[in-house]
Amino acid sequence: MNKKILAAFILNIFIAASTLAIAVSYYFYSSNPLAPTGIESYKFFTTDSNILAGISALVMIPFEARILQGKRDTLPHWAVVIKYIGTISLMLTFFTVMFVLLPVYDVKYLLLGTAFYMHVAGPVAMLVTFLFLETDSKITLSETPLALLPCVVYGAVYLTMTVVIGEENGGWMDFYTFNRGGMWFVIMPVILGCTYLIAVAGRLIHNKFVK
Length: 211
What we know:
single chain, globular
């Protein structure tokens, strides 16, 4: 039996099930001001990136099941690319929490309860599966920019809601503090650049473990 695929299969079920359960729970209750109930929770990149990761894990499950049954030999490359995008998005969430938000918000809102999964356990599980277990094909250099798409799309929405519209006009408060001191034009490119570095590092490590 392919032990790496079995481990990935189990972790992907954990990721998909945990993400679904927490996302659904937001519609009923949340004591965390950084995770409002209902549709409001989707304004946070944490929620969006975890859902993307959950979808990418869900995509992998049937293919890994067929490999374990002896009906496939490898994972489809397009599925590995989707997992790559989901993983890098969650790692951006992880690093943003650790280096940007922890100095600003109370640790109980970032690392306790469901936030622990969304900010730590989920990202780590995704990273382990992508880097070390789902290693059937390499990510090409030309595919690396695909990992930036979630960051670019969310960044455009966040910039519009916090800077162009502004909280006073019905937009969002700058909960990620990306416009502190009015320096969004510096901070946003830095975040994008850091995301690219994470994507490059993730690609290199993953490719090193490809059979």
